[in-house]
Amino acid sequence: MKIRLKPLGDVADEIMEEVRDRVRVIFHCPIEMEAGFSDLAQAYSPERKQYYSSKLLASLKKSEREERVVGVADVDLYVPRLNFVFGEADILSGTAIVSLWRLRQEYYGLAPDKALFLERATKEVVHELGHTFGLEHCPNNKCVMHFSNSLADTDLKEAHFCSACRPKIIL
Length: 171
Ligand SMILES: [Zn+2]
Ligand SMILES: [Zn+2]
Prior knowledge:
There is one protein chain. The chain is of the alpha/beta class. The protein has one domain: Collagenase (Catalytic Domain), CATH 3.40.390. Helix content is 27%, strand content 19%. It has helices spanning 13-27, 53-59, 114-132, 151-156, and strands at 2-8, 31-33, 44-45, 50-52, 67-73, 77-78, 87-90, 95-99. The strands form two sheets. Strands 2-1-5-8-7 form a five-stranded mixed sheet, sandwiched between helices. The chain has a three-stranded mixed sheet with strand order 3-4-6. Residues 127, 131, 137, 147 line the site of one zinc ion (ZN). One zinc ion is lined by residues 138, 140, 143, 145, 161-162, 164-165.
């Protein structure tokens, strides 16, 4: 099994590298970084001033069967009927997408906290990857598969899988 991380649009290399290193520690499998597509305009909604998550997700291509692909975008993502999404996964295709947009303290008018931001980004990537491995949401609020309704939930949970979820990840 291999995990491929793809920046979509403009995402700082430093963020991608930090997240890659953290995700690697959790999955213990090869993680490669590969350029994603740079033009997100096809998914932009002028009315919502956000990007349609499912559209971007559908454009993510998987090149090998034995791999998972996560697109990371530094824009605000939405799906119809929800104000926004932190991320989305497609279990059938083994692909997922994560938004960094609402993970920064600055978004909420607070002082920047880079360590916290990277921690949140890692949790979101690991969570969506968990879905691509067939995991559902976990009732354990410390588990990375716990559903985050808000960032407070994200901050409460840890970046790794609980002892019930971990064995379900078959690499
Ligand atoms: Zn989820
Ligand atoms: Zn769990």
